[in-house]
Amino acid sequence: MHLWSATPLGLLAVAACLFCQDCTRATVEGMALSVSGGRDSKSEVCVQNDLDINPVSFYMYPPVLFSGYTDCLNERQPDFKHGSGPVLIRQLANHPWRDGPSDAEICIVPVLFDHLTLGWCAGTLEQHLLQARQVIEEEDARDPKRCRHVGIATNWRSTESVAAFRKYLGQMIFAMNSKGDGCTLLTPYLAYKSAAPPGLEGYGHNTLRWEVYTDRPSNQKEKRFLVEFGGQVKRKDGYEDRLALFNSTGEIPKSYIVMVDDWEREGKRAHVRACRGPDDTDRCRRGRVSLQEFTEIREHSRFSLFLRGDEPLSDRLFNAFASQVPVVAVFDESGDGLTPGGEEEKYGWGGDLFSGWLPFPDIIPWKDLLIVIDGKTFREDPAGALRSLESIPQEQLEKLQKQMKKYRPDIDIGVFNTRVASNLLRTAAKLLPGSCSITNVGELQFGVHSHSHKQHRDWRKKRGG
User: Fold this and answer.
1) Is the Cβ–Cβ distance between 66 and 111 less than 8 Å?
2) pLDDT tens digit sequence for 270-308
3) 3-state secondary structure of 276
4) Which of 106, 256, 278, 287 shows the smallest number of beta carbons within 10 Å?
5) What domains can be seen in the chain, in order of their start residue?
């Protein structure tokens, strides 16, 4: 679904492709609204995500063989929204596609890479990576494999550690929350609402009271707000849209748009007026707002606003999906696709919005699940751009919510019928065939530090391995 303006909020157009449905067209309050799709739609991805379709045979090295698993605080949550690594390893360990080593397309390396980055494992990073290398060499000598190795490193601090991982383990694939290179794939953040169902206890260490939530569709709840947004606002690259919003004038009726105080780096914090009370929620600054309160506010809003910050991707997208609240994303048009602004060159975040960094673009029809406002149009008049959302008819939002419900298991790791692990395997199997493999790890040079196998064996004896 695309929303754009050719004039200063002149004609607004919305194009919504709802897959496998007939095409219709209507005009509402000066807004051209088109719903397209069906079998001839160019962006059609009518994929049945059943386990029998496009299965990927994979092998998981036994986690107990790796000191980077057994010697780590593996029940500790690295960072809730970025902490899906242990959850995904557990889901993959019980996945029906798990197979023996000889026929596997993918080999999962169940090292807790985020824990290594954060220093939550006994021993040094280099020691654990060398031990992992030795395990893979010994396993491959016993059972030769021609698989593509995959690790999971979803904490934001691991983004800058991938190069170190690969110096010891080769050009393996990493599932991450940030796009890095051709051998990384994006995986969703954990959603606060759904990440503590039976089987995932221990990964929901936070202040939420989970029992207050239900799976009652968001459209059945009273909509007290037109649009909600809550987050940091800083004077740095990537925050241009947030700064434009909080510096804008003009009324945004029934809005809950607040800047939450950033306790760190206050020197980069934008100057935003303080909220005057509980009923003042239009572009002002509040203290820390609990996750429970934000979730309840989101579920009582017609739209959830998705503005990039430090990174292009945000947990707001996945939390909105978990609540089936339509997402309004603001991005700049660039070339053939839409790209987020900011530090693309440093982190490799350029490229097409829908195929470049949103998770599983070959499986999830993102173009049909997001309402997109062009960044330039938004920055010219943020309040007017958001007021225009009132023109979208409720029946269209209900259709969109049905689509969000349909694809929620594809991006919600914690929901009971999740398909995220399957989608991770399918996506990894498609990445640059032949380029993201470490089948000959024994031929690699050691990392920047000189360690011998004898030194490594001595360390293993000390730890009792």
Assistant:
1) yes
2) 888 999 988 899 999 987 777 778 888 999 999 999 988
3) coil
4) 278
5) 2-46+191-411 (3.40.50.2000), 58-190+420-462 (no CATH)
